[in-house]
């Protein structure tokens, strides 16, 4: 069973953290979930890492502020910049030593980029590998929901307006009855050609745990982020990126621009898959994460140190 810990952040927000594996493992993988989700999104990767690497890799997952079993937060801190700061605190608290591989899905990947941008020295000293799953470094530049640009603009306007309303609703959670009614829409937005019923239930349950403040509050920051220049400073690190060709939120051009900024990145495009690759294509995600971890484990620790990213 994983060790459960609570990390208290400087603004008194409490994060729910789970740690699996020995403290003296050679490498720690930290898995960051997406917007409105929680750490359970990585459950298939946790099982695979446990079996594949035994005691060589320690795994950390945590629920971002306002998500899952973590506490709600003041509205001004519902930003990607704050999530980057939170990641630095979590690493200091639960992974004080040793090499780290960061894996981020959607908002989690964007949080990694913010951490690299805002804490370049800290990042350079700790991070030895990267995995980006269904994420972007260009905000909503490529997000058209699989629709025509005109309809996409209308949806984005409605989404942005709705997000502003939700952000002012504080720590309230979405009513479960409403989420059950919206399940077909959630399935259409997040999944590709096929969806296991247990996966849509898990996603719906995660959304039900997210505060309305976090559902609405993070939207503006997610849409505005641009971090390709930050990524270009990390080209020395082993990395992989995956995307589904049916992803309506972070379509293939998002992953392609990440791979272009990180020339050593192994890019995988999954046919028929949507935004939830950890669930839809666990074998591909597991293999990519294992590949990065093996490359890190095969390198001497001194080889991981590279030039720190420079914050603009």
TrEMBL record:
Q: Does the keyword rRNA-binding apply?
A: no
Its domain of life reads Bacteria
One Pfam family, short name: Abhydrolase_6
Keyword annotations from UniProtKB, A to Z: Hydrolase
Checking SUPFAM superfamilies in the record gives: alpha/beta-Hydrolases
Q: Which GO terms describe its molecular function?
A: hydrolase activity
Ranges of residues in domain AB hydrolase-1: 30-288
Task: Extract the coiled-coil ranges from the record.
Answer: none
Q: What is this protein called?
A: Alpha/beta hydrolase
Native source species:
Micromonospora thermarum
